[in-house]
Amino acid sequence: MKSIRVFCPGTIANVSCGFDVLGLSLAGVGEYMTVTQTPTKGITISEITGQDLPLETAKNVAGVAGLALLEALGSEAGFDIKIEKKIKAGSGIGSSAASSAGAVWAINHLLGNPYTTIELIPFAMEGERLASGVAHADNVAPALLGGFTLVRSTDPLDVVSLPSPRELYATVIHPQIEIKTADSRRILKSSLSLKDAITQWGNVGGLVAGLYREDYELIGRSLQDVVIEPVRSILIPGFDEIKAAALNAGAMGCGISGSGPSVFALSKGADKAHEVAQQLKEVYTPMGIPFDIHISNINEKGVYPA
Ligand code: HSE
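A: This is the predicted complex of the input protein with L-homoserine.
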Protein backbone atom coordinates (compact mmCIF):
# COMPACT_ATOMS: atom_id res chain seq x y z
CA MET A 1 0.00 0.00 0.00
CA LYS A 2 1.24 3.49 -0.84
CA SER A 3 2.35 5.58 2.10
CA ILE A 4 3.97 8.96 2.74
CA ARG A 5 5.34 10.73 5.81
CA VAL A 6 5.14 14.53 5.66
CA PHE A 7 6.31 17.55 7.66
CA CYS A 8 3.37 19.78 8.56
CA PRO A 9 4.60 23.28 9.43
CA GLY A 10 3.54 25.47 12.30
CA THR A 11 2.32 28.90 11.29
CA ILE A 12 1.98 32.41 12.67
CA ALA A 13 -1.42 33.77 11.70
CA ASN A 14 -2.40 37.45 11.67
CA VAL A 15 1.26 38.65 11.83
CA SER A 16 0.05 41.57 14.02
CA CYS A 17 -1.88 43.80 11.61
CA GLY A 18 -3.51 41.15 9.38
CA PHE A 19 -6.22 39.50 11.49
CA ASP A 20 -7.61 36.53 9.53
CA VAL A 21 -5.75 37.56 6.35
CA LEU A 22 -1.97 37.30 6.86
CA GLY A 23 0.07 34.27 7.86
CA LEU A 24 3.55 32.82 7.60
CA SER A 25 4.95 29.31 7.65
CA LEU A 26 7.69 28.26 10.09
CA ALA A 27 10.64 26.06 9.11
CA GLY A 28 11.66 24.93 12.57
CA VAL A 29 8.27 24.31 14.17
CA GLY A 30 5.93 21.60 12.99
CA GLU A 31 4.78 18.02 13.28
CA TYR A 32 4.86 14.83 11.25
CA MET A 33 2.12 12.73 9.76
CA THR A 34 2.15 9.37 7.97
CA VAL A 35 -0.70 8.68 5.57
CA THR A 36 -1.13 5.18 4.15
CA GLN A 37 -3.61 4.04 1.53
CA THR A 38 -6.00 1.31 2.80
CA PRO A 39 -8.46 -0.98 1.00
CA THR A 40 -11.47 0.42 2.90
CA LYS A 41 -13.19 3.61 1.73
CA GLY A 42 -12.86 6.58 4.08
CA ILE A 43 -10.37 7.70 6.68
CA THR A 44 -9.14 6.11 9.89
CA ILE A 45 -6.79 7.67 12.42
CA SER A 46 -4.91 4.83 14.04
CA GLU A 47 -2.36 6.69 16.15
CA ILE A 48 -1.67 10.09 17.64
CA THR A 49 1.48 10.51 19.72
CA GLY A 50 2.41 13.58 21.77
CA GLN A 51 -1.14 14.78 22.50
CA ASP A 52 -4.43 13.45 23.72
CA LEU A 53 -6.67 14.15 20.72
CA PRO A 54 -9.67 12.22 19.32
CA LEU A 55 -8.98 9.31 16.99
CA GLU A 56 -12.56 9.44 15.73
CA THR A 57 -12.41 10.69 12.13
CA ALA A 58 -15.33 13.11 12.45
CA LYS A 59 -13.84 14.67 15.60
CA ASN A 60 -10.29 15.07 14.34
CA VAL A 61 -9.29 17.99 12.10
CA ALA A 62 -7.11 15.77 9.90
CA GLY A 63 -10.00 13.33 9.45
CA VAL A 64 -12.53 16.04 8.63
CA ALA A 65 -10.22 17.83 6.19
CA GLY A 66 -9.28 14.56 4.49
CA LEU A 67 -12.92 13.47 4.18
CA ALA A 68 -13.83 16.84 2.63
CA LEU A 69 -11.22 16.20 -0.04
CA LEU A 70 -12.37 12.62 -0.72
CA GLU A 71 -16.01 13.71 -0.91
CA ALA A 72 -15.23 16.47 -3.42
CA LEU A 73 -13.48 13.91 -5.60
CA GLY A 74 -16.22 11.32 -5.16
CA SER A 75 -13.33 8.99 -4.31
CA GLU A 76 -13.74 5.40 -3.17
CA ALA A 77 -10.19 5.44 -1.75
CA GLY A 78 -9.30 4.83 1.88
CA PHE A 79 -6.47 6.17 4.03
CA ASP A 80 -5.06 5.69 7.49
CA ILE A 81 -3.42 8.58 9.30
CA LYS A 82 -0.80 8.50 12.07
CA ILE A 83 0.05 11.86 13.62
CA GLU A 84 3.19 12.73 15.57
CA LYS A 85 1.85 15.84 17.32
CA LYS A 86 4.55 18.28 18.29
CA ILE A 87 2.52 21.49 18.36
CA LYS A 88 0.14 21.74 21.28
CA ALA A 89 -3.53 22.46 20.59
CA GLY A 90 -4.40 25.95 21.79
CA SER A 91 -0.81 27.20 21.42
CA GLY A 92 -1.40 29.82 18.71
CA ILE A 93 1.14 28.23 16.38
CA GLY A 94 -1.37 26.59 14.06
CA SER A 95 -1.69 23.10 15.55
CA SER A 96 -5.03 22.33 13.87
CA ALA A 97 -3.87 23.88 10.59
CA ALA A 98 -0.73 21.74 10.53
CA SER A 99 -2.79 18.53 10.83
CA SER A 100 -5.48 19.69 8.39
CA ALA A 101 -2.95 20.82 5.80
CA GLY A 102 -0.78 17.71 6.20
CA ALA A 103 -3.74 15.36 5.72
CA VAL A 104 -5.06 16.95 2.54
CA TRP A 105 -1.58 17.41 1.05
CA ALA A 106 -0.59 13.77 1.71
CA ILE A 107 -3.89 12.28 0.50
CA ASN A 108 -3.81 14.44 -2.63
CA HIS A 109 -0.23 13.31 -3.26
CA LEU A 110 -1.09 9.61 -2.85
CA LEU A 111 -4.00 10.05 -5.28
CA GLY A 112 -1.67 11.47 -7.95
CA ASN A 113 -2.29 15.19 -7.26
CA PRO A 114 -5.80 15.71 -8.68
CA TYR A 115 -5.70 19.18 -7.05
CA THR A 116 -3.04 21.87 -7.06
CA THR A 117 -1.78 22.86 -3.62
CA ILE A 118 -3.73 26.12 -3.62
CA GLU A 119 -6.91 24.19 -4.45
CA LEU A 120 -6.45 22.15 -1.25
CA ILE A 121 -6.99 25.19 0.99
CA PRO A 122 -10.82 24.92 1.20
CA PHE A 123 -10.57 21.28 2.35
CA ALA A 124 -8.02 22.14 5.03
CA MET A 125 -10.30 25.01 6.11
CA GLU A 126 -12.91 22.40 7.08
CA GLY A 127 -10.46 21.22 9.76
CA GLU A 128 -10.29 24.81 11.03
CA ARG A 129 -14.07 24.98 11.10
CA LEU A 130 -14.11 21.92 13.36
CA ALA A 131 -11.36 23.32 15.62
CA SER A 132 -12.59 26.88 16.08
CA GLY A 133 -16.07 27.12 14.60
CA VAL A 134 -14.79 29.40 11.84
CA ALA A 135 -13.23 28.20 8.56
CA HIS A 136 -10.45 30.79 8.62
CA ALA A 137 -7.64 30.30 6.09
CA ASP A 138 -4.78 32.36 7.52
CA ASN A 139 -3.04 29.32 9.06
CA VAL A 140 -3.84 26.62 6.48
CA ALA A 141 -2.82 28.82 3.52
CA PRO A 142 0.79 29.33 4.69
CA ALA A 143 0.91 25.76 6.07
CA LEU A 144 0.12 24.42 2.57
CA LEU A 145 1.84 27.00 0.37
CA GLY A 146 4.79 27.97 2.56
CA GLY A 147 6.15 31.49 2.97
CA PHE A 148 3.90 34.44 3.69
CA THR A 149 0.33 34.39 2.41
CA LEU A 150 -2.46 36.92 2.13
CA VAL A 151 -6.06 35.72 2.20
CA ARG A 152 -7.55 38.55 0.16
CA SER A 153 -11.00 36.96 0.33
CA THR A 154 -12.56 33.74 1.59
CA ASP A 155 -15.73 34.08 -0.49
CA PRO A 156 -14.69 33.51 -3.18
CA LEU A 157 -11.38 32.15 -1.90
CA ASP A 158 -8.50 34.29 -3.18
CA VAL A 159 -5.11 33.55 -1.62
CA VAL A 160 -1.95 35.36 -2.68
CA SER A 161 1.58 34.10 -1.95
CA LEU A 162 3.90 36.91 -0.85
CA PRO A 163 7.70 36.97 -0.92
CA SER A 164 9.67 36.04 2.22
CA PRO A 165 12.76 38.16 2.84
CA ARG A 166 15.72 35.80 3.25
CA GLU A 167 17.03 37.12 6.56
CA LEU A 168 13.70 37.12 8.35
CA TYR A 169 13.65 35.01 11.54
CA ALA A 170 10.89 34.45 14.04
CA THR A 171 11.33 33.97 17.77
CA VAL A 172 8.22 32.37 19.24
CA ILE A 173 7.63 32.05 22.97
CA HIS A 174 4.90 29.64 23.96
CA PRO A 175 3.71 29.96 27.57
CA GLN A 176 2.28 26.56 28.52
CA ILE A 177 -1.29 27.68 28.99
CA GLU A 178 -4.06 26.83 26.55
CA ILE A 179 -6.16 29.49 24.86
CA LYS A 180 -8.85 28.06 22.61
CA THR A 181 -9.21 30.01 19.36
CA ALA A 182 -12.99 29.91 19.72
CA ASP A 183 -12.72 31.59 23.14
CA SER A 184 -10.27 34.23 22.03
CA ARG A 185 -12.51 35.07 19.06
CA ARG A 186 -15.57 35.39 21.27
CA ILE A 187 -14.06 38.28 23.25
CA LEU A 188 -13.34 40.40 20.15
CA LYS A 189 -15.37 43.49 19.41
CA SER A 190 -17.54 43.26 16.32
CA SER A 191 -16.90 46.83 15.16
CA LEU A 192 -13.97 49.23 15.15
CA SER A 193 -13.46 52.94 14.73
CA LEU A 194 -12.58 54.45 11.38
CA LYS A 195 -9.39 55.77 12.99
CA ASP A 196 -8.26 52.27 13.97
CA ALA A 197 -9.30 50.85 10.60
CA ILE A 198 -7.12 53.43 8.84
CA THR A 199 -4.13 52.56 11.06
CA GLN A 200 -4.67 48.85 10.49
CA TRP A 201 -4.98 48.87 6.70
CA GLY A 202 -2.03 51.27 6.46
CA ASN A 203 0.01 48.66 8.31
CA VAL A 204 -1.25 45.73 6.21
CA GLY A 205 -0.30 47.60 3.05
CA GLY A 206 3.05 48.60 4.59
CA LEU A 207 3.85 45.04 5.60
CA VAL A 208 3.03 43.65 2.15
CA ALA A 209 5.11 46.39 0.48
CA GLY A 210 7.95 45.72 2.94
CA LEU A 211 7.97 42.01 2.03
CA TYR A 212 8.16 42.82 -1.70
CA ARG A 213 10.92 45.39 -1.20
CA GLU A 214 12.78 43.31 1.37
CA ASP A 215 12.66 46.48 3.47
CA TYR A 216 13.11 45.25 7.03
CA GLU A 217 12.45 48.68 8.55
CA LEU A 218 9.17 49.07 6.73
CA ILE A 219 8.19 45.54 7.82
CA GLY A 220 9.07 46.46 11.40
CA ARG A 221 7.09 49.72 11.34
CA SER A 222 4.09 47.85 9.99
CA LEU A 223 4.03 45.14 12.69
CA GLN A 224 1.40 46.97 14.75
CA ASP A 225 -2.06 45.85 15.67
CA VAL A 226 -4.47 48.40 17.15
CA VAL A 227 -7.56 46.20 16.73
CA ILE A 228 -7.01 42.69 18.12
CA GLU A 229 -3.91 42.89 20.32
CA PRO A 230 -5.34 45.37 22.86
CA VAL A 231 -8.22 42.94 23.52
CA ARG A 232 -6.44 39.59 23.42
CA SER A 233 -3.18 40.55 25.11
CA ILE A 234 -4.91 40.54 28.49
CA LEU A 235 -5.20 36.74 28.18
CA ILE A 236 -1.41 36.38 27.93
CA PRO A 237 0.52 36.67 31.20
CA GLY A 238 3.45 39.09 30.80
CA PHE A 239 2.55 40.15 27.26
CA ASP A 240 3.60 43.80 27.70
CA GLU A 241 6.91 42.79 29.30
CA ILE A 242 7.64 40.26 26.53
CA LYS A 243 6.91 42.82 23.83
CA ALA A 244 9.06 45.50 25.49
CA ALA A 245 11.92 43.02 25.95
CA ALA A 246 11.75 41.85 22.31
CA LEU A 247 11.79 45.41 20.98
CA ASN A 248 14.59 46.45 23.38
CA ALA A 249 16.62 43.48 22.16
CA GLY A 250 16.29 44.81 18.61
CA ALA A 251 13.40 42.78 17.17
CA MET A 252 11.69 44.49 14.25
CA GLY A 253 8.28 43.87 15.80
CA CYS A 254 6.42 41.65 18.23
CA GLY A 255 2.81 40.51 18.56
CA ILE A 256 0.44 37.67 19.37
CA SER A 257 0.89 34.54 17.28
CA GLY A 258 -2.53 33.62 15.93
CA SER A 259 -5.01 33.62 18.78
CA GLY A 260 -2.27 33.19 21.42
CA PRO A 261 -0.93 32.48 23.96
CA SER A 262 2.26 32.27 21.89
CA VAL A 263 3.94 35.57 21.16
CA PHE A 264 6.21 36.06 18.15
CA ALA A 265 8.93 38.55 17.35
CA LEU A 266 10.45 39.01 13.90
CA SER A 267 14.13 39.88 13.57
CA LYS A 268 16.63 40.43 10.80
CA GLY A 269 19.08 37.52 11.00
CA ALA A 270 19.40 34.41 13.15
CA ASP A 271 21.79 36.04 15.65
CA LYS A 272 19.30 38.76 16.49
CA ALA A 273 16.50 36.18 16.82
CA HIS A 274 18.66 34.27 19.34
CA GLU A 275 19.38 37.49 21.30
CA VAL A 276 15.66 38.18 21.42
CA ALA A 277 15.03 34.63 22.66
CA GLN A 278 17.56 35.16 25.46
CA GLN A 279 15.84 38.36 26.58
CA LEU A 280 12.42 36.70 26.50
CA LYS A 281 13.70 33.83 28.65
CA GLU A 282 14.97 36.36 31.20
CA VAL A 283 11.57 38.05 31.33
CA TYR A 284 9.57 34.85 31.53
CA THR A 285 11.63 32.59 33.81
CA PRO A 286 10.88 34.56 37.03
CA MET A 287 7.16 34.50 36.21
CA GLY A 288 7.04 30.80 37.03
CA ILE A 289 4.94 29.78 33.99
CA PRO A 290 6.61 27.01 31.98
CA PHE A 291 7.34 27.98 28.38
CA ASP A 292 9.00 26.82 25.14
CA ILE A 293 10.95 29.09 22.84
CA HIS A 294 11.40 28.41 19.13
CA ILE A 295 13.65 30.23 16.68
CA SER A 296 12.83 29.66 13.05
CA ASN A 297 13.31 31.03 9.60
CA ILE A 298 10.46 31.03 7.10
CA ASN A 299 9.50 27.68 5.54
CA GLU A 300 9.18 28.29 1.81
CA LYS A 301 7.85 24.82 0.96
CA GLY A 302 4.71 24.36 3.04
CA VAL A 303 3.94 20.68 3.64
CA TYR A 304 6.67 18.40 2.22
CA PRO A 305 7.71 14.72 2.29
CA ALA A 306 9.88 14.00 5.34
N1 HSE B 1 -6.97 34.49 12.57
C1 HSE B 1 -7.22 33.49 13.56
C2 HSE B 1 -7.53 34.19 14.87
C3 HSE B 1 -6.03 32.62 13.70
O1 HSE B 1 -6.73 35.05 15.25
O2 HSE B 1 -8.54 33.88 15.51
C4 HSE B 1 -6.14 31.56 14.75
O3 HSE B 1 -4.90 30.85 14.79
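The chain has ten helices and eleven strands. The chain has a mean pLDDT of 97.
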